[in-house]
Amino acid sequence: MQVDGLLPYLKENQSEIIRKIREGKYKPNPVRRVEIPKEEKGEARKLGIPTVSSYCTPPNDVLECCLQFL
């Protein structure tokens, strides 16, 4: 999901996300792992790319608060 798509997604799924947070059942998507090459021959560095929604999910209680204003 692109950052631009987060607000429409949250508006559409607001009640379901809040319910899962309150029940302790919300699981954010896992971080995407990619390897980027190092300058040294044949070596790679692992890089984690989080999803947009993982920045605003538990234990961050701000998400539930923000969803109340959508």
Task: Give an overview in words.
The protein is α+β, with helices and mostly antiparallel strands and 70 residues long. It has one domain. The protein is built from 2 helices and 2 strands, in the order αββα. It has a two-stranded antiparallel ribbon with strand order 1-2. A hairpin with a 6-residue loop joins β1 and β2. The model has no long low-confidence stretch (mean pLDDT 75).
Low-confidence stretches: none
Shape: elongated
The secondary-structure element order is HEEH
Number of domains: 1
Mean pLDDT across the residues is: 75
Q: Kindly report how far apart the N and C termini lie.
A: 19 Å
Can you count the helices?
2
The Cα radius of gyration reads 16 Å
Estimated helix fraction: 25-40%
> Which sequence of strands runs across the widest sheet?
1-2
List the helices and strands and how they pair.
Layout: H1 6-23, E1 32-37, E2 44-49, H2 62-67
Antiparallel strand pairs: 1-2
